[in-house]
Specification:
There is one protein chain. By secondary structure, the protein is of the alpha+beta class. It has one domain: RRM (RNA recognition motif) domain (Alpha-Beta Plaits). About 25% of the residues lie in helices and about 35% in strands. The chain has a four-stranded antiparallel beta sheet with strand order 1-2-6-3. The chain is globular.
Amino acid sequence: MISYEIIRRPLITEKTTRQREQNNQFSFEVDRRANRVEIRRAVEQIFNVQVSDVRTVSVKGKVKMRGRIAGKRRDWKKAIVTLMPGQRIDFFEGA
């Protein structure tokens, strides 16, 4: 897989902003088929940083009602990437 296919988008919420400031952790939505090693290589290649740890979470899509008709959001995978001390991703600054 190509690095830009593995990393779909960054996740920017209050919780991920707090993780970024306190623990030097960054969150991304990633391809559901990608494993930790592929995610580590993709982040290191795209952002030119050194990764110390990768944690992944498979997020199940919520069931939503639209009147009487039930629909389901898609399932997706989240990766929480911890960088080595002194490393940072400038992409997130000002976001």
